[in-house]
Amino acid sequence: MRALLPLLRTGWGWRAGPPAAARLTRVKSAGPGPHRAMAQALYRTEERGQLYSPDYRLFFKNVAGHYISPFHDIPLKVDSTENLFNMVVEVPRWTNAKMEIATKEPLNPIKQDIKNGKLRYVANIFPHKGYIWNYGALPQTWEDPHRRDKSTDCCGDNDPIDVCEIGSKVLSCGEVIHVKILGVLALIDQGETDWKIIAINVNDPEASKFHDIDDVKKYKPGYLEATLNWFRFYKVPEGKPENQFAFNGEFKNKAFALEVIKSTHECWKTLLMKKCDGGAISCTNVQVCDSPFHCTQEEARSIVELVSSSPNKGSKEEEQVWHFLGK
Which of 21, 63, 177, 196 has minimal Cβ neighbours within 10 Å of its Cβ? Predict the structure, then answer.
């Protein structure tokens, strides 16, 4: 594969060639098997450092084995004509470690968030254990901190848009899966808009039942209410107040969610083309070739090689303390 690849433009996203790889991402499937095979074939990960330590990093590679950014180089949409999006899994369901795409580091590996010098873990708030969905992000989206959202009247939180995947399978950190969008919740976190997309893995055994947010209410009763309460209370054990929501905590439907995604994708394009101030965000990418932040495969490899691969002592992953916040 050449270092510089042509971009294939769709209505939603930018993909890099070669054409054979592009065809892989656009194959339509009648069943879950081919989709699963495609997702496994297109991306894999490489660990550096010890899990649950400040030095841990999870880097991404494409089908050719070249390092890429999960933030910038994985296309947003799997197919421009379907409700089918790529999701990067950061946190598996029932776990507590706050793993996230490192937006300020070159190639944006996944790392564990650190606050006040300590690794972050979300609290167990009864009756929930850790995260209650597979939690992650949509690539090629960005919630612009300088752009005030018309519907929430708050600016973005400077991250890719978050996803709560509600399927039955517990996924792994670093998996790239195909999801159907069902709806969205507008969390207002310390005055910033922090959208939470509700989606389901297309390979879930019950995925065919889910088409919009009302299907979640029908087939998974109580899940949306639990999601609202989770986001309302999850920072309370840290001594912070309850979080607030736009629209009085109402979950908006698929059509609304798709417009939110489209808007954050346009913000990401502006960011990658250096048409706005991205601040400390690292826009280094391997496949968006007309971006001024594009780098070669060799440069990407050098970035990864600078990160220590030696194991360091990690901390304990599980958060065993339970918090009871009932009123």
Answer: 63
Please write the tens of the pLDDT for every residue from 69-109.
Answer: 999 999 999 988 788 999 999 999 999 999 999 999 999 99
Q: Residue 171 CB: number of other CB atoms within 10 A?
A: 21
pLDDT at site 318: 60
> What backbone phi and psi angles, to 5 degrees, belong to 19?
-55, -35
CB-neighbour burial class of residue 305 (10 A; exposed 0-12, middle 13-18, buried 19+):
exposed
Residue 208's SS3 state is helix
Position with higher pLDDT, 36 vs 224: 224
Tokens 């946190």, residue located: 91
Distance CA 192, CA 90 (A): 21
Q: For residues 58 and 44, what is the distance between their CA atoms, to the nearest angstrom?
A: 10
Residue 11 has pLDDT above 50, yes or no: no
Beta-strand relationship, 99-101 and 110-112: antiparallel
Nearest to 254, CA basis, from 175, 179, 321, 317: 179
C-beta separation of 159 from 103 below 8 A: yes
3-state secondary structure 5-32: CCEEECCCCEEECCHHHHHHHHCCCCCH
CA dist 318 and 117 (Å) reads 19
Tokens coding 133: 């969905």
Which residue type, as a one-letter code, is found at position 83? N
- Tell me the pLDDT tens digit for each residue of 141-184: 999 999 999 999 999 999 999 999 999 999 999 999 999 999 99
Q: Which whole number is the average pLDDT over 229-244?
A: 94
List Cβ neighbours of 305 (8 Å cut-off, separation of 6 or more).
none
Strands 67-68 vs 57-61: parallel, antiparallel or unpaired: antiparallel
